Amino acid sequence: MQTLPSPVQAAPTPVETAIVRRKTRPVPVGSITIGGGHPVAVQSMINEDTLDIDGSVAAIRRLHEIGCEIVRVTVPSLAHAKAMEEIRDRLYKTYKPVPLVADVHHNGMKIALEVAKYVDNVRINPGLYVFEKPKGDRTEYSAAEFAEIGAKIRETLEPLVISLRDQGKSMRIGVNHGSLAERMLFTYGDTPEGMVESALEFIRICESLNFYNLEISLKASRVPIMLAANRLMVKRMDELGMDYPLHLGVTEAGDGEYGRIKSTAGIGTLLAEGIGDTIRVSLTEAPEKEIPVCYGILQALGLRRTMVEYVACPSCGRTLFNLEDVLHKVREATKHLTGLNIAVMGCIVNGPGEMADADYGYVGKQPGYISLYRGREEVKKVPESEGVAALIDLIKADGRWIDPQ
Q: pLDDT digits over 11-54, tens only?
């Protein structure tokens, strides 16, 4: 009987599991740098009227203290712009410098020029910065009209660009799907193409003035449009040799569970593709509620480690303890830690295998007892009532415990 030689199998090509981020230029926003390989930055926006100095300072501080790295404020008038000087100074004296962004909208040149003195970044909306009053009987824009408005935009944008450039500050060109300029709507329709061309028009003006500290955002309340616009923006920038960082967000996402799901679907999808350098989750809730969602998205994708990563099986008939209750107890005892993976598994079937990447494991191997693991190694078995305390002791013994504040 002839024995055939065993075929020689080539070693499998390793599959990349880490997200490879798009290379972008570094853009400063105060002490934070967006892009350039820096961690994806977390942003939010206060709800307070900027004329309320005390309320605004307190709101900015609350956000910054829980991890919001860049805080945006609305600046709808010249009085609001001037108020930013006192807000900035009050933060410096009573807290610390916080990277601040001013949001400027309708016909905003004078407002933007004033507030640029006191903030680190000015956000403008191309659809509103030079407001084009719609004409009800219009059927098209002539080339001359298009060029005339373009010249007006340049005239009003140039002083702001020069001011930010000379101060070493930055600008966000923030396009919203719901507020495209009328001529963009007539030319490109209510489309991602119109959003991208709107951003490019402003980028080109900035570049002609040797200003490159730009971040770009293309937001929509519908996730598919937000995804398409950002993907197209990346494609067009690659074609044009541009490398500006992108600010991601689903605008007007709503509240509650669906608002969080909607934001995660948009932001998380693009981040997983390597697109995005700073994010904001826009919820119809207190701004403080946005920050945990941002960090949750970044942690789930492995882009930042700001809390414990918990691995837990969904529970089934094999589970030897109340998994939901035990996971809650473990989480409450360890949630203040950072950079750890802790697995809580209900039985030996899923335990050691499914928690292979965990730093510590808490596994039900027999009724009434818990087996504690360090990585793949079983360290000890303790009564279930002592499980959480024993886990803490194990983390302490490894020098990885920090007392909660």
A: 677 777 789 999 999 999 999 999 999 999 999 999 999 999 99
If you write DSSP's letter for every residue of 340-373 in order, what string do you get? -EEEEESSTTTHHHHTTT-SEEEEEEETTEEEEE
| Cα 339 to Cα 161: distance, rounded to the nearest angstrom | 41
What's phi and psi for 228, nearest 5 deg?
A: -65, -40
**DSSP class per residue in 260-322:** HHHHHHHHHHHHHTT--SEE----SS-GGGHHHHHHHHHHHTTS---SPEEEE----TT--S-
pTM above 0.85, yes or no: yes
What whole-number distance in Å separates Cα of residue 223 and Cα of residue 225? Answer: 5
Burial class (CB in 10 A: 0-12, 13-18, 19+), 345: buried
Burial of 375 (0-12, 13-18, 19+ CB in 10 A): middle
Burial of 385 (0-12, 13-18, 19+ CB in 10 A): exposed
**With 70 as the cut, is the pLDDT of residue 354 above it?**
no
